Amino acid sequence: MFIAAVITVSDRCYRGERPDRAGPLVAELLKGAGYQVVQTAVVPDERSQIERVLRETADIGYVQLLVTTGGTGFSPRDVTPEATLAVCTRLAPGIPEAMRYASMQTTNRAMLSRAQAGIRHGTLIVNLPGSPKAAQENLEAVLPALAHGLEMLSGQPADCAAERSAES
After folding, report:
1. How far apart are the first and last CA of the chain?
2. Residue 50 class from Cβ within 10 Å (0-12 exposed, 13-18 middle, 19+ buried)?
3. CB 116 within 8 A of CB 78
4. How remote is the C-alpha of 2 from its chain's centroid?
5. Which residues pair with 39 in a beta bridge?
6. Domains of the chain, CATH where assigned
């Protein structure tokens, strides 16, 4: 079982003007996939605050997957990708590429997502859109492969060739 955290980035949710629907949905999807969700939080669309919560959560040392929802669009306040890039030491570009590809099967607006994914210490950080529907579609597109990546990241033995054979 892997340990996860879910951070919602939304000014309106943070101010209590709108309920957070995407964060709880993502947490439930992760729990359903066998993850232990130990932290959820809502932060405003402020880059410094997003960076702070990403650093603090990743630097705890036991959260292996940190998923954000929100702040990945074109709005001037959408700065989650920039905050993610600022705190990560290595990028995982295949994850957002796969999410955008899967979403393009549903809507051409998927190409407007600026989501990022990267690694800080032993934590994989993945940005999801803020819409509950889009967050679910994006997470479901990559969730089956994340466990393998987290095993490799944690230093556990991971037989990549065996995994590929099982997929065929």
Report:
1. 25
2. buried
3. no
4. 14
5. 5
6. 3-167 (3.40.980.10)
Each residue's pLDDT expressed in tens, for the chain with a length of 168 residues? 899 999 999 999 999 999 999 999 999 999 999 999 999 999 999 999 999 999 999 999 999 999 999 999 999 999 999 999 999 999 999 999 999 999 999 999 999 999 999 999 999 999 999 999 999 999 999 999 999 999 999 887 666 666 555 555
Going along 36-122, which residue ranges are E strands?
36-43, 65-69, 90-91, 117-120
Taken as a whole, the chain contains a residue count of: 168
Q: Which amino acid is at 101?
A: Y
What's the burial of 157, exposed, middle or buried (CB within 10 Å: 0-12/13-18/19+)?
A: exposed
Contact (Cβ atoms closer than 8 angstroms) between residue 114 and residue 130: no
Strands laid side by side in the 117-120 sheet = 36-43, 3-9, 65-69, 123-128, 117-120, 90-91
Chain-centroid distance of CA 145 in Å reads: 13
- Indicate the burial class of 149 (C-beta count within 10 angstroms; 0-12, 13-18, 19 or more): buried
pTM: 0.93
